[in-house]
Amino acid sequence: MKILVTGTAGFIGFHLANRLSKEGYDVVGLDNINDYYDVNLKYGRLKESGIESPIDYGKLLFSKKYTNYAFIKLDLKDKESIDKLFHNEKFDAVCHLAAQAGVRYSLKNPYSYIDSNIYGFLNILEACRNFNVENLSFASSSSVYGLNKKQPFSEKHNVDHPISLYAATKKSNELMAHTYSYLYGLRVTGLRFFTVYGPWGRPDMALFKFVKNILEDKPIDVYNFGKMQRDFTYIDDIIEGVVRVIKNPAKPNEKWDALNPDPSSSKVAYKIYNIGNNAPISLERFIEIIEKELGKKAKRNYLPMQPGDVESTYADVTALIDELGYKPYTPPEVGIKNFIDWYRWFYSV
After folding, report:
1. Looking at CB atoms within 10 Å, which of 4, 16, 118, 278 has the fewest?
2. Are 212 and 202 in contact (CB under 8 A)?
């Protein structure tokens, strides 16, 4: 199977490309390597995958680590180049992870979310349709649950009340994917990730910022006065779920009832899965684990709730267990230690 993975200079895409390459799949990675955060980290991930600089736009570059992995620098908005790539490579499956991420950043830069997450995703859908790629999985987000207070969050719940533009674009992706499944026979699976963390993680995420600031004797911003709960999910658990989805593309739900519709499936080949740890912890507990691992206390700067944030997340993973035989299991103590070990190695601290 030849698989296109978008976003492979990013956190989740990097790990997925490595996992698939190790398993022997032919993998093509794609990323525009934008400057949303430190590009040195993005180039570091690529180097770890055997992709060496210089990296020229639009040129397929082969890994020096995996003989079955190649990378191309492309922008999702570049439809002509995306179509050319699909035409030349003849993919069997696509896992679309590239996106403009971040809830708070969407308050300041809304247009970048429309460009990447709507227009960019449309180009992927069109390429799948026009070049006969039926197996498509894509990153959604736990942010789509928005104002929903019923927990744990189930894929069967209503998600019509997002509270950030980022969440709205992810909800839009799910709707767009269903439409293409219905019209053109694509087999599509949306993956709602819950607060992913681990080695090679993003600098805009809480764990990265907390560890960096504590080590530098700087205060950490703790929103909602610490009264937040998150279903922190370790990167390896996320990747295991994604790989199982790629190997088991969506099927029509033969029991789907149009008079009582299940939002997580359809009469066409469309499916939504939560991938979360199914064990939320408080932000205070999360910080305590970091402090213990670092052997150093944090200077907390307590702040009110930020616009676009939700107070808690909690994933119902019943469908993941029942249909794909998998449940995330890594405890935060293990995941945080692994991240700190990586951070100290990468930044030599």
Report:
1. 118
2. no
